[in-house]
Task: inverse folding
């Protein structure tokens, strides 16, 4: 099976070798040169995901805009599909536009390959996503895996066959040798190996499960036991397809070879979506047959049997069940009657985790907290769905569970009403994840849904209203924020919740700040600080004093410097970084306004350095925008224009724009843009903006702003008669490549390259490839 870590490309890095499939992979790479949507179709366990990932890795050079994996196995709610895709593509959902619109805009100018994995239970939602993205982006390619096609016009369905006998035997040998180094396929066991692989129908998952048993059994013994299992299953399930019977039999056999305690943990682990850490296993699965002291040993035994995969990360190891194994375990969990209990314990664990991290937010663990929430994204969505009473979407019965399994068992069989109050509490406790982790759109959707489902006037609702207002403010939707604050104020006064009431005051100050209302902003923020001081709520004092400092600096009040000094000292003492970065940015703006460009640059660069640990493209954009003002005032108008272009690109990708930010920023932006245009002229100004616009994402933008990186391929305004693809072909001709080699390099068919070369010759009026090479070199 695949044991993975995540690489910088967003694709999982395999810890096991890839056996066979070379012909299929070559054909897929050829298809991706012309077909815009390719769907790998086949039974569960046939290796669709691994083939898709290996093809994607091999195609990295052909897609300069990136190759990304969208794993949909943990997702049950079709509405969540665009948000999960946005997160996988690295798009931080911070705007008020629908996330599907933001995704379409994000991919529109990128040559990307997106792998949509495990689409079968969300076929309609995946089809809608693919249709929208492919319509928006001519250079986009989608490689999907599903047990059924997406049924879109232009879709190329690629059936994934089982391994041929030679490849199946090689996979068996490859997976057996790490645990039994002396294992060989020789004349003595060759016939038994062939019978085993044939009996397993060449399904990679079934072969890997069987390989685990060759540590202690001979090939002949494994064949004998599996043949017994097949006979029993065929008698009991005549309607199942052959591949379903085979895979079911292999997993049934693994189940029966587990001890009762191992089976109990296996089925309980199926409640997790997308992976889990050891503390989650302790918090969700321990009890009534699984003791706290035996969890590690049981988990280790499941890993040794290839039923659980371990992915080593830099800090904490995480585990996952392959989807076929997970669905089999979930069927067993439903049969046991424990499914409701486990989903409730799952919700309780992640609610406690979120609330604990929210309490610890103002401190040195902010980056660690956000990383944990990103890793648990699938589990957080699953907990929110269960708490809201949302049912997982229907899917085709899984081959691991057999064709006789009921849809309810495979969907999750949830019939309870959930717990709207717990869901509301979880959505509110995740506010730092929504805001600083780059999930504003998803956070707002979850908060709106949870607030609608739990209208009771409780303290939990008061906190959720404040969280929703905060999210809306970061999206610059002040109207919605103020509506939630109105209800929150009335509710907190009725409940006598003085802490929440103080926070309402503070957020009213933020709304007033964004609207340029100096008196109201300072009045509300000062009241928030005073109220938290009276209550002895230390963290509240620190947080709101920082916001007050930002407001005082923005409005140029005499107290600004002292308030900022106190706020910075407190943040440094507590190891807090996120709020500190934004305060440093505003102090940099103040220094620039006061005519101190050197100090302004130092403060702004310091703020940008801190934000490298967060996913806050809007914050990064505002800081880079500010650095552009400072750079322009120093006379470097070309770099200022490039910084403006980078900031504009970040805001666009985040679903917002400069017109949505506070009035003072808009004024400074307009002045800087006019200054750059006047100094450079229109053509050079557009070139500088385009150069900055080529910077892809907050990390690259920060690197460029800190002068630790340059843009590799800045898009100058070109007068070339050739299209971008024709320019790529011309460049490779210059390197002496034949049409066939160019086709392999660009993942195109030779016929397509022939057509490109003919068009280049026609456009340039040439008759030879040598003339193309000379023209390219000269230009």
Result:
């Amino acid at each position: 099976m695949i044991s993975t870590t995540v690489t910088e490309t967003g694709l999982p890095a395999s810890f096991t070798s890839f056996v066979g499939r070379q012909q299929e992979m070559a054909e897929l790479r050829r298809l991706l040169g012309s077909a815009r949507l390719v769907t790998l179709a086949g039974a569960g366990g046939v290796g669709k995901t691994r083939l898709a990932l290996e093809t994607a890795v091999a195609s990295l050079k052909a897609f300069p805009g990136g190759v990304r994996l969208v794993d949909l196995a943990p997702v049950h709610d079709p509405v969540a599909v665009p948000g999960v895709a946005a997160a996988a593509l690295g798009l931080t959902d911070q705007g008020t536009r629908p996330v599907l619109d933001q995704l379409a805009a994000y991919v529109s100018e990128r040559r990307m390959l997106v792998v949509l994995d495990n689409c079968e239970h969300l076929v309609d939602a995946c089809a809608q996503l693919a249709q929208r993205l492919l319509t928006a982006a001519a250079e986009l390619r989608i490689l999907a895996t599903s047990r059924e096609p997406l049924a879109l016009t232009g879709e190329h369905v690629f059936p994934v066959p089982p391994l041929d006998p030679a490849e199946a035997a090689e996979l068996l040998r490859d997976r057996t040798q790490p645990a039994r180094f002396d294992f060989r396929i020789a004349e003595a066991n060759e016939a038994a190996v062939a019978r085993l692989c044939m009996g397993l129908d060449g399904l990679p998952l079934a072969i890997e499960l069987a390989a685990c048993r060759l540590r202690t059994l001979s090939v002949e013994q494994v064949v004998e036991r599996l043949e017994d299992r097949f006979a029993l299953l065929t008698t009991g399930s005549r309607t199942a397809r052959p591949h379903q019977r085979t895979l079911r039999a292999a997993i049934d056999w693994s189940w029966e070879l587990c001890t009762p305690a191992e089976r109990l943990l296996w089925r309980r682990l199926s409640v997790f979506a997308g992976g889990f850490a050891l503390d989650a296993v302790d918090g969700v699965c321990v009890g009534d047959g699984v003791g706290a002291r035996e969890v590690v040993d049981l988990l280790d035994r499941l890993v040794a049997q290839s039923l659980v995969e371990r992915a080593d990360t830099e800090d904490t190891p995480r585990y996952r069940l392959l989807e076929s194994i997970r669905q089999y375990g979930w069927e067993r969990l439903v049969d046991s009657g424990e499914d409701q209990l486990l989903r409730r314990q799952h919700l309780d664990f992640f609610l406690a985790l979120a609330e604990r991290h929210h309490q610890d937010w103002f401190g040195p663990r902010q980056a660690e907290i956000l990383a944990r929430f990103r890793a648990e994204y699938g589990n957080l969505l699953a907990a929110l769905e269960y708490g809201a009473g949302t049912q997982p979407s229907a899917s085709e019965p899984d081959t691991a569970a057999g064709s006789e399994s009921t849809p309810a068992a495979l969907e999750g069989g949830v019939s309870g009403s959930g717990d709207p109050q717990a869901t509301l509490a979880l959505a509110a406790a995740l506010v730092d994840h929504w805001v600083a982790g780059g999930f504003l759109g998803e956070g707002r959707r979850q908060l709106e849904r949870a607030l609608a489902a739990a209208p009771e006037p409780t303290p939990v609702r008061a906190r959720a209203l404040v969280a929703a207002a905060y999210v809306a403010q970061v999206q610059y939707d002040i109207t919605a924020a103020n509506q939630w604050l109105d209800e929150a104020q009335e509710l907190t006064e009725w409940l006598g919740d003085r802490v929440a009431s103080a926070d309402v005051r503070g957020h009213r100050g933020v709304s007033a700040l964004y609207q340029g209302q100096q008196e109201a902003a300072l009045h509300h923020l000062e009241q928030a600080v005073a109220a938290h001081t009276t209550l002895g709520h230390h963290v509240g004092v620190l947080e709101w004093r920082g916001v007050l400092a930002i407001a005082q600096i923005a409005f140029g009040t005499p107290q600004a410097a002292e308030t900022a000094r106190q706020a910075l000292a407190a943040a440094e003492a507590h190891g807090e970084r996120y709020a500190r970065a934004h305060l440093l940015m505003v102090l940099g703006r103040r220094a620039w306004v006061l005519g101190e460009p050197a100090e302004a640059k130092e403060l702004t660069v310091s703020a940008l350095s801190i934000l490298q640990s967060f996913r806050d493209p809007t914050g990064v954009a505002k800081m880079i925008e500010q650095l552009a003002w400072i750079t322009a005032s120093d006379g470097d108008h070309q770099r200022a224009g490039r910084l403006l272009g980078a900031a504009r690109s970040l805001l666009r990708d985040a679903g917002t724009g400069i017109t949505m930010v506070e009035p003072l920023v808009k004024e400074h932006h307009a002045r800087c843009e006019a200054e750059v245009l006047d100094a450079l002229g229109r053509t050079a100004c557009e070139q500088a903006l385009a150069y900055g616009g080529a910077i892809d994402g907050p990390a690259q933008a920060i690197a460029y702003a800190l002068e630790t990186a340059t843009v590799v391929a800045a898009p100058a305004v070109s007068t070339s008669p050739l299209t971008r693809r024709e320019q790529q072909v011309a460049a490779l001709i210059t390197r002496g490549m034949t049409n066939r080699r160019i086709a392999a390099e660009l993942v195109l068919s030779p016929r397509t390259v022939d057509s490109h070369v003919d068009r280049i010759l026609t456009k340039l009026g040439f008759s030879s490839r040598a003339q193309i090479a000379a023209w390219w070199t000269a230009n």
